[in-house]
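Structure tokens please, single chain.
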Amino acid sequence: MQKNVQSTLKGGIRPPVPWRDIEYVRTAFPEPWIHDVVVGWGHCDPAQIVYTGNIPAWGIEAVEGWYRYCLGVDWSEMNLKYGVGTPFAALGFDFKSPVRPGRILQIHVDVARIGKTSLSNRITAIQEERLCFTGQTTSVFVESLTMTPLSIPPNIRRSIEAYQSQQG
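Here you go.
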């Protein structure tokens, strides 16, 4: 008797499926993607400056939101429904001025570079018209089942290119 793959998985997690492209190209982006963070007291140290570790975490959250906005699917759906992963190959953040509690931090995400199998996003974070940090992330598109590099699927690529052409 063959063992059911689903029964070997913990917590109901499904394995990824063979990769496929998203169904349609997204071409209309009425405004650039901005991820708002309400900076709370708990995000900060006693000096009222945000803990350093929150900055890359918020940058990654902003990039995931950008994928949802640009492609219409989030990372979970990309992996489990479409079999496409986008693990990070590089992350970098530069601090410009302190992020303070009690204020909204706006994190802008743009396309910096589209490669054959990779995508770099540029991150700019502003609080009350003050530049707080910048960053860049680079992800590699992979087949989720094998974790081998994958050329960016055509509908995904065209959606990213459409966003890039409208980002100003």
